[in-house]
Amino acid sequence: MQDPSAIELRLPDESDDSLRALVEEAIRKADELPPHHRALANWARTEPRLGQAVCEVIYRLDRGTLRVATRNQESLSTAPDLLGSDSATHIAPERWLVHGWIQSAINLYFPLAQLETYRAGELEFFDKIPPKRDLASAGIRVVPPGIVRYGAHVEKGCVVMPGYVNIGARVGTGSMVDTWATVGSCAQVGKGVHLSGGVGLGGVLEPAGARPVIIEDGAFIGSRCVVVEGVLVEEEAVLGAGVVLTASTPIIDVTGANEVVHKGRVPARSVVVAGVRPRRFPAGEYLLPCALIIGQRSESTDRKTSLNAALRDFSVSA
Predict the structure, then answer these.
(1) Where are the alpha helices (DSSP H) in the chain?
(2) What are the tens digits of pLDDT across the range 283-316?
């Protein structure tokens, strides 16, 4: 089995900026080729440094020195107050910066990687990307048959039950990926997050620059929730069991006299449950899914205490 982190496959001395320039050159070369030749990674055969640059990006994603999305520091002080007006629809602000060239590098990596057989005891796999190695030295607990793919970064103190973390994803320290929870490619999960059983976080690689699903620090995602299409769940928010969030799902704050509708974003410390709202069609009136903000976790209390109180006070299923 080939070691994808082998130094001869990479460019360890290149700066991040230099790697970006090489990856962007690889993108141009690949785009000039017919689809069949692009799938065979012929662009890397003629200019090996381009392929090595792509491999170095994946290595740095795996080690956590690069990431697909980073918090926009300007948003910490200049983000508008989106909770202050009634009867409005709010689109998620750019709290996060997405590095599309890294997403492109992941796409370029697939034709470079070779299909190989991997074994874990009696289990056999045939794939291009091996499981992550050296889990014990990284301080990560992975329970069989949980999988963290090479090219994903899971920080020290995380627990991955029999779930799945895909390439390009990042999971912050102290977080739990519970049984059958999946963290899609490039999804960003913060520190101290709990992804309950069966949670599905969607992945995104194309188009380059598309925002991945982002779950910020301290959030609690209830059983069988689905979060896709780049939805942002802000710090310490709580999603009750079975909430489904897409980019177009109305997320309705019903705590005031007038509703406030968000899309693509769950505000910090919100407690959210699944709901429905009527919509009329030519054939009649039907109920379409939405999500309801029914309260807030207290900012002044301990996270664990606040979470328990939220689940109890608002009768939210976890």
Answers:
(1) 16-31, 35-39, 42-46, 48-63, 75-78, 100-112, 135-138, 303-313
(2) 999 999 999 999 998 766 566 556 666 666 666 6
Question: Degrees (nearest 5) of the Cα angle 243, 247, 251?
Answer: 50
For the record, the structure tokens of 57 come out as: 């990006």
Q: Which three-class secondary structure string do you get for 212-229? A: CCEECCCCEECCCCEECC
For residue 159, what are its two tokens? 């627990």
d(CA 205, CA 257): 41
- Residue 70: strand pairing partners: 97
* Residue ranges per structural domain of the chain: 236-318
For residue 180, give the 3-state DSSP assignment.
coil
Q: Which helix (H) or strand (E) holds 261?
A: strand 260-263
Residue that is written with structure tokens 């895909």 in the block = 166
Write 60-64 long-range contacts (CB < 8 A, 24+): 60/16, 60/19, 61/102, 61/106, 61/151, 61/152, 61/153, 61/167, 61/168, 62/5, 62/132, 62/150, 62/151, 62/152, 62/153, 63/153, 64/153, 64/155, 64/170
DSSP for 121-176, written as a single string: TTEEEEESSPBP--HHHHT-EE-TT-EEBTT-EE-TT-EE-S-EE-TT-EE-TT-E
Q: How far apart are CA 252 and CA 245, in angstroms?
A: 12
Q: How far is CA 176 from the centre of its chain?
A: 14
User: pLDDT tens digits for 124-170?
Assistant: 999 999 999 999 999 999 999 999 999 999 999 999 999 999 999 99
Give the three-class secondary structure for 183.
strand
* Average pLDDT score over residue span 231-248: 97
Tokens 């200019």 found at? 47
Angle between helices 100-112 and 16-31 (to 10 degrees): 60
Kindly report the CATH number that applies to the domain delimited by 236-318: 2.160.10.10
* Out of 16-30, 39-53, 230-244, least confident range: 39-53
